[in-house]
């Protein structure tokens, strides 16, 4: 739970600080998209590897090791002044972050098998951390304090959580419980096809094009191109994360009773409509409402897909790692495409690419096969 909240702190602050980071290192939209693509591609590849490592050493152990490395790298990232140094350290930060993502999702999915609504509610803690991180970063910047101080603060929280995970590490207990996964050598994609999850994997990658794009480009659009202040831009993001946390938290039981197919269609339509509204509205307040809807709709993607994976996969930890890597692949595909479109055709067109991806998730889910996925409708 603490790891989910801490990881959200970083991504919430990132969404608000991206405007300042872009100007500090003189990055245009295309360069920023390429940098994110490289960093997240490496993180996605490492996530697939770390999933297999978690089978052997235990997800809890991988979690505290990754948290220690991540906290140190965040402090280094805050000290970088040159563009090349920032890019290099950011890649390492994303690799450590991908390991945290894999470990916490693997442990949560393993412990909550058969309880998808609880897993959905658990992901609400990420959104709670994200809205907290966004609010803190906005207040720090608005007060005239350098945005660079936010990352050491996140690092301190991560260090505390890492120590907590270390002292409560059960050693080999969790590893032995997962030993059944480690004993199989079937290729992950063949295993997912056998479990009926391969189509869902592709839909999930497309969904993460939208979810990652909302976090990266939504606030940046408001601050860069509608000339909103940091508090309004961050406020829209905070409202979106509050909607996401409420949807995942209070609505967890209801969402658990929905099939993943219906929830993905609903989330895709809401997210696509919200992002489209942000892209076409010249009024900052209306655009901010669109961003909130986009973030809220996209928030349904990750936890509901993971709840289905935890129930249907024959090897949960390995499957969660593969899906986590696919999520990062979606971010990789989205970042340079949206950045290039924004740079070439205008920022509104970049957001419309995200809206198209969201509607694509709904369409692929509606017209695609769903016999196995629909089995989780009982919650």
Summarize the structure.
The protein has 17 helices and no strands. It has 379 residues and is mostly helical.
What does this 3D model show about the protein?
This protein is mainly α and 379 residues long. The protein has 17 helices and no strands. The protein has helices spanning 2-24, 29-57, 59-79, 83-111, 116-142, 150-167, 173-177, 179-182, 188-194, 198-225, 230-249, 252-257, 260-280, 284-298, 301-312, 316-345, 347-367. The relative contact order is 0.17.
What structural class do you assign from the helix and strand content? mainly alpha
| Biggest β-sheet strands, sense, barrel | none
Cα Rg: 19 Å
Oligomeric grouping of the chains: single chain
**Measured distance between first and last alpha carbons:** 21 Å
Overall morphology: globular
Topology, number of strands: 0
Tally of contiguous helical segments: 17
Secondary structure: helix percent: over 70%
Helix-strand topology string = HHHHHHHHHHHHHHHHH
Strand share of the residues?
under 5%
**Average pLDDT, all residues:** 78
Low-confidence stretches: 172-184, 371-379
Comma- or semicolon-separated keywords:
379 residues; disordered C terminus; globular; mainly alpha; 83% helix
Draw up the topology in text.
Layout: H1 2-24, H2 29-57, H3 59-79, H4 83-111, H5 116-142, H6 150-167, H7 173-177, H8 179-182, H9 188-194, H10 198-225, H11 230-249, H12 252-257, H13 260-280, H14 284-298, H15 301-312, H16 316-345, H17 347-367
């Amino acid at each position: 739970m603490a790891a989910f909240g801490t990881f959200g702190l970083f991504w919430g602050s990132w969404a608000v600080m991206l405007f300042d980071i872009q100007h500090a290192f003189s990055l245009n939209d295309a360069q920023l998209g390429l940098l994110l693509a490289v960093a997240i591609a490496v993180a996605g590849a490492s996530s697939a590897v770390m999933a297999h490592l978690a089978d052997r050493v235990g997800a809890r152990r991988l979690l505290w090791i990754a948290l220690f490395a991540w906290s140190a790298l965040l402090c280094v990232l805050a000290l970088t002044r040159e563009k090349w140094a920032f890019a290099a350290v950011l890649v390492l930060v994303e690799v450590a972050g991908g390991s945290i993502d894999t470990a916490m999702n693997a442990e949560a999915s393993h412990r909550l098998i058969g309880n998808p609504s609880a897993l959905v509610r658990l992901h609400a803690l990420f959104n709670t951390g994200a809205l907290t991180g966004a609010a803190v970063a906005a207040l720090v910047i608005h007060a005239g304090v350098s945005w660079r101080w936010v990352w050491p603060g996140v690092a301190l929280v991560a260090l505390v959580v890492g120590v907590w995970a270390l002292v409560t590490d059960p050693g080999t207990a969790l590893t032995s419980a997962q030993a059944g996964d480690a004993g199989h050598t079937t290729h992950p994609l063949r295993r997912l096809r056998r479990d009926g999850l391969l189509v869902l994997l592709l839909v999930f990658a497309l969904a993460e094009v939208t979810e990652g794009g909302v976090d990266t480009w939504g606030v940046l659009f408001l601050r860069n191109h509608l000339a909103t202040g940091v508090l309004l831009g961050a406020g829209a993001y905070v409202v979106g994360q509050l909607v996401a946390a409420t949807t995942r938290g209070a609505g967890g039981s209801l969402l658990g009773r929905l099939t993943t197919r219906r929830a993905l269609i609903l989330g895709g339509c809401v997210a696509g409509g919200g992002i489209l509204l942000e892209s076409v509205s010249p009024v900052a307040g209306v655009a901010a409402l669109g961003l909130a809807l986009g973030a809220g709709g996209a928030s349904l993607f990750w936890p509901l897909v993971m709840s289905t994976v935890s129930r249907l996969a024959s090897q949960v930890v390995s499957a969660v790692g593969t899906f986590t890597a696919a999520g990062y692949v979606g971010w990789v595909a989205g970042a340079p495409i949206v950045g290039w479109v924004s740079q070439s055709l205008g920022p509104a067109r970049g957001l419309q690419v995200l809206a198209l991806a969201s509607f694509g998730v709904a369409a692929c889910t509606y017209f695609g096969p769903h016999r196995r996925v629909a089995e989780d409708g009982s919650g």
